[in-house]
Amino acid sequence: MGLCAVSAGAKDSEAVQVRKMIEKVNQHWQVEHSPEVRAFWDNAVYHTGNMEAYFLTGNETYRTYSETWANYNQWKGAKSDNRAEWKYSYGESDEYVLFGDYQICFQTYVDLYNLAPEDRKIRRAREVMEYQMSTSQNDYWWWSDALYMVMPVMTQLYKVTHNTQYLDKLYAYLQYSDSIMFDKDENLYYRDAKYVYPKHTTANGKKDFWARGDAWVLAGLAKVLKNMPENYVHHSFFVNKFQHMAQAVAAIQQPEGYWTRSMMDPDFAPGPETSGTALFTYGFLWGINNGYLAEDTYLPVVKKAWLYLSKKAFQKDGTVGYVQPIGEKAIPGQVLDAKSTANFGVGAFLLAACEYVRYLEAPQTADRAYWCDLAYRMAAPVLRNMAKGELQKNMQLEVSPTWDGRNKKVAYMETFGRLMAGIAPWLSLPDDDTKEGEMRKELREWALKSYANAVDPQSPDYLLWRQEGQTLVDGAYVAESFLRAYDQLWMPLDETTKKRYIEEFQQLRRIDPPYTNWLLFSSTIESFLAKVEVKFDEYRVNSAIRKVEEWYTGDGWYSDGPTFAFDYYSSYVFHPMYLETLQAMKDAGIRSRIDYGKYYDRALKRAQKYSLILERFISPEGTFPVFGRSIPYRMAAMQPLALMAWYEDLPAGVTGAQVRCALTAVMKRMFADGRNFNEGGFLTIGFTGSQPDVADWYTNNGSLYMTSLAFLPLGLPAAHPFWTNAPQEWTSIRVWGEKPFPKDHQWKDEIHTWDLF
User: Fold this and answer.
1) pLDDT (tens digit per residue) in 238-281
2) Is the peptide bond before 460 cis (omega within 30 degrees of 0)?
3) Which residue, among 273, 249, 251, has the nearest Cα to 260 in the 3D structure?
4) How many other C-beta atoms can be found within 10 angstroms of the C-beta atom of residue 233?
5) Where residue 674 falls among pLDDT bands split at 50, 70, 90?
6) How far is it, in rounded angstroms, from Cα 583 to Cα 297?
7) How far apart are CA 726 and CA 456, in angstroms?
8) Tens digit of each residue's pLDDT (9 = 90 or more) over 67-86
């Protein structure tokens, strides 16, 4: 099977032209400059842009260039090993280990580590940053540049370690920075405390905000939000700062698209400047692409900025001109021209250009279009009918040849609950006027009506809530869909419907779950009830958690009850529902004997290991091993891999692009012949196509909608790197192609916890 595609059509589109600029600029720089230079800030900023260009284009020359640089610098910044002499004031010699200008290199080292994890690549980064965090000082970031140089390092290392101290210290250090150089009235930063108004003014008596200084901050905040978990206690602080700063910056853009070096006094140092403009453009585009900034408001700003960057700053030979030299302020009379270039200016240009390509190509990404079409094909017959109360009337029902005789109406609840658990993240994205947006809006509107019908006793599609033990299972998948899109699918429901769901969920306590993964169905429902702040059963939650811990066998695998079963129930139930139970209890702020936060962190590491295994299961041909019970659930076997991609928490050595390509290959292999759907458009029993004899005694064709659980990454925006990065070979292609690939090893639990009281 070939690798997946990035985009289709638009051969002469603007995106194609921007890609050509990226190639020309980067090749021009690399031909003219050796990578064997020190790891100081100016070189390191270039590499942040170079790595972004690598991820977007897949050009291995770019990655090799950065890796050569990292090896030359021994994967260090400043090289002193004597902690007693480490400093963080300004300095360029090797004792300035704690100085942010010597820490930005860690951004690239972490990027390279995530591609091919080897401890040596981030050993120094962790040593330095963890030593720094062990000190009592909070005043490390005393100049605005540091907020680009080091803030993203903190969130990147958090993603590697899940040590929340990185986030807490980031917040504490930024509080200090704000106290000395942030202007609350303007929502802008002075370069450092020397430039604070009114102690310092421009020659015209105005506030002096240096463009590149503020651009470092806006771009740095974008990079922080890229890796900061949304449930972090101070996440909203960073979002608000980013949005308010973006508003302030946009308001003082020059008509020609650039920002002058002293942003609020264009006459003080007039004329264009590229490094600040490019970094601002990157920040705006990242915000648009990831839903933090309104496209209608900020795209005109981006368009003007890009016109300047592409028509004036970009030169025909690939030079990026009009870059202010190294400095710290706007300097009257300083002349910038087409030949005024610098490594950091090139890096800033690459960041902006890559993010612009992501914006331009998002509506036409071929893999995402395929996923959307398949998800829509799967969901539309179900939701279109159920929204009208006609699912039970029109669904072409199939049951196992060995059906156990239970009420066949369980199938409708299985169909709806499992489908919604899979597509909920996709439906949580905001509306837009693309083809995908129209599909998504239509499905969401149908889904909200279907949710109401599902619990309305007067509806023909009232589900089988009060018969059969099976309803506990699929009640949990309905609850899971609400947990996955709480604001978009639960909150819009009317109060009557919400009350009905609470009653239906609570009455499911009548069911005594088997001593298996079923305990997690109860815990998922009860933790959802805790999240909505109604009466819940703490014992059902905590006893499930304790049993799941007892059933953990190691290296990512859970036993289904006291006896290990070699099947995919670690995929279908254990990893996702255990994580979601713990997260919901955290969200609810419940204090009990169990430390939900630590349990979550441990469960997440296990899920990462298991997702790594699943990625390696996918063959070069797009197949994976078929074993154990419930194999007609199809792609649901890949749910933890999809979940980690949606969470943006894939393990090091497994990139979003390779997961996208691998899952796309499996989908195309599995659904290629069209025989997975019956004449009414509903799924048929089988693994690939119609294979009724592979059904277990409890299988009906509603059960099979669990395959939608592999579609979770559709919850990532269309411009997200998961969709827009260059195709990457997944592990088995590398292995069987005699190419380098990351080694695997046993993962042991490193987080230990005990009852809080």
Assistant:
1) 999 999 999 999 999 999 999 999 999 999 999 999 999 999 99
2) no
3) 273
4) 11
5) confident
6) 34
7) 47
8) 999 999 999 999 999 999 99
Spatial distance between the Cα atoms of 45 and 52, rounded to a whole number of angstroms: 11
Q: Cβ-count burial of 623 within 10 angstroms (0-12 exposed, 13-18 middle, 19+ buried)?
A: middle
DSSP 90-137: S--STT-TTSGGGTTHHHHHHHHHHHS--HHHHHHHHHHHHHHHHSS-
* The residue type at 735: V
In one-letter notation, the amino acid at residue 19 is: R
Q: Name the H helices within 508-652.
A: 518-531, 538-551, 569, 575-588, 596-617, 639-647
| Residue 689 near residue 676 (C-beta atoms within 8 A) | yes
Q: DSSP string of 484-513? A: HTIIIIITTS-HHHHHHHHHHHHHGGGS--
Length in residues, the chain: 757
Task: List CB contacts of 471: < 8 A, sequence separation 6 or more.
Answer: 410, 413, 463, 464, 465, 508, 511
Q: Which residue type occupies 505?
A: F
Per-residue tokens: 302: 């981006």
Query: Do residues 5 and 724 touch, judged by C-beta distance below 8 A?
Result: no
pLDDT of residue 364: 83
Answer yes or no: are the C-beta atoms of 36 and 44 closer than 8 Å: no
- Residue 620 is given by DSSP the state T
- Show the tokens assigned to 240: 């608000």
Torsion angle of C-alpha atoms 285, 287, 291, 293, degrees rounded to 10:
-100
* Cβ–Cβ < 8 Å for 527, 537: no
Q: How far is CA 244 from the centre of its chain?
A: 23
Give the pair of three-digit tokens for residue 72: 């030359």
- Are 99 and 90 in contact by the 8 Å Cβ rule? The answer is yes
Q: Is 88 helix (H, G, I), strand (E, B) or coil?
A: coil
Neighbours of 514 (CB within 10 A): 13
The SS3 assignment for 287 reads helix
Q: Dihedral angle at the C-alpha atoms of 610, 611, 615, 616, nearest 10 degrees? A: -20
Residue 239 contacts residue 228 (beta carbons within 8 Å): no
| Cα 419 from Cα 436, distance rounded (Å) | 18
Q: Tell me the one-letter amino acid at 12.
A: D
pLDDT at 673: 83
Roughly how many angstroms between the first and final C-alpha of the chain, as a whole number?
Answer: 55
Angle 139-143-146 from CA coordinates, rounded to 5°: 85
Q: Please give the structure tokens belonging to residue 591.
A: 């204090």
pLDDT in tens, 15-62: 999 999 999 999 999 999 999 999 999 999 999 999 999 999 999 999
Q: Which residues is 131 bridged to in the sheet?
A: none
Q: pLDDT of 169-227, one tens digit each?
A: 999 999 999 999 999 999 999 999 999 999 999 999 999 999 999 999 999 999 999 99
Reduced to 3 states (helix: H, G, I; strand: E, B; else coil), residue 525 is: helix
Quick one: pLDDT at residue 5?
Answer: 64
183 DSSP β-pair partners: 188
- Strands (E) across 711-757 are located at none
DSSP class of residue 459 equals S
Band of residue 2 on the pLDDT scale cut at 50, 70, 90: low
How far apart (Å, rounded) are the C-alpha atoms in residues 396 and 415?
A: 12
pTM of the model: 0.96
* CA 571/CA 407 separation, integer angstroms: 27
Q: d(Cα 387, Cα 416) in Å, to the nearest integer?
A: 11
Query: Per the structure block, which two tokens stand in for 103?
Result: 């820490």
Can you tell me the distance from the alpha carbon of 355 to that of 287, in angstroms, rounded to the nearest whole number? 10
d(CA 50, CA 668): 33
Asked whether 192 and 180 are in contact (CB, 8 A), the reply is yes
Distance CA 77, CA 97 (A): 7
DSSP 687-717: SSS--GGG--TT-BTTGGGGGGGGGGGGGS-
